[in-house]
Amino acid sequence: MSERKLRVAVVGCGMIANSAHIPAWLSQPGAEIVGVVDRDLDRAKTLANKHAIPGVFDDVGNMLKELSPDVVSVCTPAGSHKEHAEAALRAGAHVLCEKPLTITSRDAADLFKAAQESDRHLLVGQSMRFYNQVAAAKAFAAGGQLGDIYCADVARMRRRGIPTHGSFHIKELSGGGVLYDLGVHMLDTVLWVMGNPKVVAVSGATYSKIGPRNENLITSSVESGAFAGGVSSASYDAATFNVEDFASAFLRLDNGGTIHLKVCWAANIPDSAGGVMIMGTEGGLSFDPRVLDLRVIKNMGRYQVDITPKILPPEPNHPFYAHWHMIAHFVRVIKGTEEICVKKEEALNVMRALEAIYQSAKEGCEIRLDQADG
Description:
Layout: E1 6-11, H1 15-26, E2 31-37, H2 41-51, E3 55-57, H3 60-67, E4 71-74, H4 81-90, E5 94-98, H5 105-118, E6 122-125, H6 132-142, E7 149-157, H7 171-174, H8 178-193, E8 199-207, E9 246-253, E10 258-264, E11 273-280, E12 284-288, E13 293-300, E14 303-307, H9 321-334, H10 344-363, E15 367-368
Parallel strand pairs: 1-2, 1-4, 2-3, 4-5, 5-6, 7-10
Antiparallel strand pairs: 7-11, 8-9, 8-15, 9-10, 11-12, 12-13, 13-14
């Protein structure tokens, strides 16, 4: 007899569900999507009809009671992540939750506690770890190719890439702006590659200079990260923009290392600015998580060399292919054949650092972090 498929429900029917989670779950032979939930019932029906999903709901509680899914993908705005993820965990489902896990580290710790008490897995959707070039960078660093890693410079800069789909720009719904959209990805990536040192102090600044203005520029959804269709039809009004569109921070680590982080949705800069540089005593890494680009910087004898590893192309060839890898990983975790990639301590380390950036920006001083896990 064949093994029973995991029964999956998806909460939130916006761009990331339509373009990433649903097609990735549908590609898994060991899983089936049994329901979708969205407060906009018509949008849920449209998505369900598109993918022949039988269950359609506008309330998470009703869905959990009626379907009792094995797994729930939470794809709603960050401000509702805790409510939806905790309800799913308490109902006995494993949870994959989009980043950021919650809008406070205390709420994140509460979710991990709920997962432990429910004996269920909670995976934070740090999908960038599953990019081929990032996985290779992690392997080189973990293999000792860099020696003692002590410094990193990381940036993800869009010229005009404010998400006009969804509610990323509304603090009451998303908790924050570009730090919670791009910053959480970039900080998690560089800390992971560096071996997950703890952040012990932060000095940061945030700005909201471009977002509140209606520039009437010609832009595309691709510039704001909405690849492969599925963009929400929700109208965007610059007058409702009340989060940061640019953030910069200097972070001190418990091993003596440092990170300089810069992220922005909109600034007067060249297109596609940014990338990651990680420096160690025996070598360095330079890569851009968005493209198949990785260099290992080393010395060979008396010569300085740049090594360009062969990175396999994405499979499937899709802008969100990392979600396919992440969801396949989660299936293996649930089946007990693989250890979960994003650990509780790692997720809380990132959340506390992001909170400290906001606090530092507000207070105009360096913030020292409490090292307790909470």
